[in-house]
Amino acid sequence: MYRIGKEEIQAVAKVIESRELFKCNGGLQETMHCEQEMKELFGCQNAILMTSGKAALIAAMVACGIGPGDEVIVPAYTYIASAMAVLATGAIPVIAEIDESCTIDVSDAEKRISRHTKAIMPVNIQGFPCDMDGLMNLAEKYNLKIIEDACQADGGSHKGRRLGTIGHAGALSFNQFKIITSGEGGALLTNDRTLFERAFIYHDSSAIAYFGGQLDEISEAQFCGTEYRTNEITAAILREQLKKLDGILADLRKNKKNIMDALQNDFCFAPSHDAAGDCGTTVAFMFDSEEAARKFATADGIHGTLPIDTGKHVYTHWTPVLEKRGALHPLMDPFKMQANKDLNHNYSPDMCPKTLDILAKTVYIGINPDWSKAEVEKVIAACKAAGKALA
Fold it and tell me: Whole-prediction pTM value?
């Protein structure tokens, strides 16, 4: 969370004073307005506000018809929720390597495509854009769906298009730790009308037929889904956050660029598939060894982290996935389903050595959009001093 304050407080107060907190109402209709503003800001035709980014990923895959007997390729470096979302549909996550950008390696993903593969889930981790051109080429070549996990990249872009709107469907997240926040929350974005209608039905199947005219323009047949419905307070907060998004991104990118420009002759940085579209939340330094990376990360004034240490963001820490416990009830566990018995779930801790090597030699420094010029210069000075100590 970067910027939140009186505007959000006032927005929430208005909702409470209206006494209309349910999303379907004759009052402020914050959810409806939020989704419309999201479509305009992100440049897509359909948006559904939901309870979380994971909810949006699950709804997107259900809408694509993904289920038992299917594989979805996910990167070895992403939060465990990405893989868990696949399992929630009854499908199997297939784990692929990342490249030096810390996003999914397109060439490795292609090697893992089988006759069971139905989708690839690129993850724009830390706001780093994936190679969306390469991924969309794979989708066309193999008739696959691309479901973007842009949960850490709200507002980022690739070649001028917002992340989450390039694939067949995309997910955003607005929890406490994202670029903009409503405490919790997420959204599904898509330009595909059929996927939108199916995801809409799935995300609130027990209520959409009974509140308001939500099904008036829906032609897809109703089916049983779940309840990822959000509320007016969340939407009111998010409407104010959406107004701040591009300002936050501009300041993040400015501070990141100033740091990298000042250090370009002293360090190697992780490459980017679109430096201009990168969200700017993180500077990623690359070193020749883990020893050098750790020495730099712990130097005075650096406050760096190695992504290899980020727990459940690394596949080796996806304990229930690696141990193949996809559900509590055995008949609901995708790993035990007959339809999945021949699928690729031959997991092992050393299955993605390239990923582990990259993550152990990379150091992240987080960027704050509200840093003053002096604070940015202080970071630069600390990095230069730490670099000299490594020489």
Answer: 0.97
